[in-house]
Amino acid sequence: MKIVVDAMGGDHGPVVTVPGAIEAVNDYNIEIILTGDQEKIQKELDKYSYSKERIKIIHCSEEISNEDKPVAAIRRKKDSSMVVGLNLVKTKEADAIISAGNTGALLAGGLFILGRIKGIDRPALAPVYPTTEGVAVLIDGGANADCRPRNFLEFGIMGDVYASKVIGIQNPNVCIVSIGVEEGKGNEITKESYKLCKEKARFNFGGNVEARDIPSGYADVIICDGFTGNVILKLTEGIASTIFGALKEEFTKNILRKLGAVILKSGLKNFKKRFDYTEYGGAPFLGVQGNLIKAHGSSNAKAIKNAIRQAKTFVENNVVEHIEMEIKELGEDGLD
Amino acid sequence: MKIVVDAMGGDHGPVVTVPGAIEAVNDYNIEIILTGDQEKIQKELDKYSYSKERIKIIHCSEEISNEDKPVAAIRRKKDSSMVVGLNLVKTKEADAIISAGNTGALLAGGLFILGRIKGIDRPALAPVYPTTEGVAVLIDGGANADCRPRNFLEFGIMGDVYASKVIGIQNPNVCIVSIGVEEGKGNEITKESYKLCKEKARFNFGGNVEARDIPSGYADVIICDGFTGNVILKLTEGIASTIFGALKEEFTKNILRKLGAVILKSGLKNFKKRFDYTEYGGAPFLGVQGNLIKAHGSSNAKAIKNAIRQAKTFVENNVVEHIEMEIKELGEDGLD
């Protein structure tokens, strides 16, 4: 199995992508292709001992930065680490790609270079959301700000495949984020989507989930438009960081409290770990013709390694084929 | 000043509304009218010593429950504690009303009985959102699931009046919740609303706020549709309760950790207090012709008292008149 790592992507570039790739090759039976600046990548590789047969560099003269306009960057920077990497997946020279680079560009590249799975109108980002029960899949995490009911049904199908085939949740409870659990509660789009899912879904459609019940793991797959998904993810991040900040402030106010905090150190560490995105790798962009994982821009080597592991699981479990099959089953209903 | 308390509203009814009203009368220079079942209210009143001149009961033979359909309940239950209370505000026999009852019914009652302020298309709920800086006003907290740009502008106007005149924030930073700070980021409705606010706002329009920056208090007034507002409020509630649960679990795992937690008790208490809704009273329904405060359904006596204090501040600061004036300034631009 060959996995492409966009070595230049993310806030830290080769400094984290290279050790992440090396760790992955050490632990898993895979080969890695690093796309990007040969010299910079080699400089990082030279810091470690690694299997030269299983890590290959493809030199690229360009790089897509976070400031680049997504569509223009994909069209013009043909020799960028991202575009070259996507083309390797397109031509089947590689089985999957992970990138921590410009999200908009990566999504545009997924759509234009890999293309959509037949029958999928809107591919979507599907990050995992940590819950007290484990994790849930949130879809769409931000690729499509405005959606129509058909898209919600597609999100349900793709989220269900991901949750069941990759994460291993049996018969996932797939729910739409809304402002009440009853069928009649919601805004226009969620109410219409509820009806459509109730009628057409082959997955286990559990109706609506209120945002209050997301953190406790009521739903295994959380369907929403990309605007709402982004609000949920970013707000969670903001609240977690605010709460950790407030705790730290309270726990360092005097010497006695500092002592208490020392006693609780391992408890606090466990607690923080539950909210640590690096544990979960990246977010797949589901619905395109290939395995594409978006890693967090601020990924460290461990997060890159976990994203590679995730890409491997996608390949092993034929996620693209399963989505194709599920959509085909629907297509005969004339939804296109 | 006379404030109506819907004595039957909320999960606990007179058991909390009566002591809440008594505490408010003891602390503030106001009179209270309790609407509801005379016998039940008197039974609670008899448990306390209170100023008989300043607390009056108006008996009502009906009650609106959480199971009642909002519009039907308001139309049919003419002698309910909620409808009678709203009519007292309508006829100016009282200056404000607070209720912890059926939210949908209270909003419908506000619209049908009190009526809208001229020029306001969509009155909105405006709860406060606790931040590390103090509080922000979130508007709309759930009254209007689907909105148009004009409504966002109205929310900005009303939120600005509330934040500046009642909460005392000078020149509040009024922002639209979106998925990026740039003008072009968002969904259709937020992008259009951005343009409209930029063009028409007399308040301090600060552009977009990302959900990640809400908890830190970047925005003083947070504009969004009622669907997004509900998601933000409920998710915050869910995350806070999950985090408190996880902390408790970690901190009681063994005897040493329990000791650590005892040392940190006051710190943990302060920390929890920051997220305690009872501190903040209720959410005003802004844009109707009268002062209407929705208290949380699970309010205790302290929350009821704080909602009464809040109602008093609304009356003292002529919130309705200020909104009327601000909307009038806009009306000449032909927005209606």
TrEMBL record, chains A, B:
GO terms for molecular function: phosphate:acyl-[acyl carrier protein] acyltransferase activity. Pathway: Lipid metabolism; phospholipid metabolism. It is found in: Cytoplasm. Keywords: Acyltransferase, Cytoplasm, Lipid biosynthesis, Lipid metabolism, Phospholipid biosynthesis, Phospholipid metabolism, Transferase. It comes from the Bacteria. The keyword Lipid biosynthesis applies. Pfam families: FA_synthesis (PF02504). GO terms for cellular component: cytoplasm. InterPro entries: FA_synthesis (IPR003664), Phospholipid_synth_PlsX-like (IPR012281). One of its GO terms (biological process) is phospholipid biosynthetic process. It is an enzyme of class 2 (transferase). Catalyzes the reversible formation of acyl-phosphate (acyl-PO(4)) from acyl-[acyl-carrier-protein] (acyl-ACP). This enzyme utilizes acyl-ACP as fatty acyl donor, but not acyl-CoA. Homodimer. Probably interacts with PlsY. Belongs to the PlsX family. This is Phosphate acyltransferase. It comes from Natronincola ferrireducens. The lineage of its organism: Bacteria, Bacillati, Bacillota, Clostridia, Peptostreptococcales. The gene is plsX.
